[in-house]
Amino acid sequence: MARPREFDEDRVLDAVMEIFWRKGYEGTSAQDLVDATGLGRGSLYAAYTNKDGLFEQALLRYHRRAQGHVEQLRKPGPAIERLRELMLDVVNADLRAVEKRGCLATNTAIEVAARDQRVADLVRQNFAILTRGIAETIRRGQDDEEFSADVDAETLALFVFNAVQGLRVLTRTATVKDRHRLSAVIEQTLAALRQV
Predict the structure, then answer these.
(1) How large is the angle between the packed helices 30-37 and 9-27, nearest 10 degrees?
(2) Which of 18, 77, 107, 142 has its CA 20 to 30 A from that of 9?
(3) Residue 188: helix, strand or coil by DSSP?
(4) What's the mean pLDDT in 160-181?
(5) Which fold, 62-195?
(6) Per-residue pLDDT tens for 42-68?
(7) What are phi and psi of 115, to 5 degrees?
(8) How far is CA 150 from CA 84, 102, 135, 196, in A?
(9) What is the dihedral angle through the alpha carbons of 77, 194, 68, 178, rounded to the nearest 10 degrees?
(10) DSSP, res 171
């Protein structure tokens, strides 16, 4: 019978996610993980096997953030406003951040996914969570005649998702003075949904 874990798993996994998000996979050492969690290497690796196991747990933990965005999209109100709110919240959060981390899934796609199929699958799952939520919102907007129905919702969702991820990348080097330009990108993206 396995021994119960003698630590707060939620706290530990949040700390693991944060350190990988801040430093990336390659930049995170075993000592960084020990320092972030307050656990010894033996305890960490007994629970999660190795650095790869911890990284997978961090990516799974990050799925919660994508699901949080989906819940935001499901709030009452016009679909266009839900999409605008999502994109503005992403931009504003990233611009306010002291540390410009961008999106953990996007960072991982660039740094690790090309050489690790399991990581690529986890990144793809993360992207799919938000893309499905955007598609659901676009279908609602099409049903309410906010958006053109000439293009299927899944294709438009990828278009919007691409804009969201692009905004996350742009904000890594943007300053508050760039907010108006980023807001213009959001408005252009939303205008395209009405014109297609």
Answers:
(1) 150
(2) 107
(3) helix
(4) 94
(5) Tetracycline Repressor; domain 2 (1.10.357)
(6) 888 888 889 999 999 999 999 999 999
(7) -115, 5
(8) 21, 33, 14, 6
(9) -110
(10) T
Q: What angle do CA 123, 125, 128 make, to 5 degrees?
A: 110
How far apart, in Å, are the Cα atoms of 68 and each of 28, 45, 110, 133? 26, 29, 23, 10
Tokens at 174, concatenated: 């943007």
Both structure tokens of 45? 């690796």
Q: What tokens does 164 get?
A: 């969201």
Q: Report helix, strand and coil shares of the chain as percent, to nearest 5.
A: 80, 0, 20
**Dihedrals φ, ψ of 5, to 5°?**
-70, 140
d(CA 10, CA 4): 14
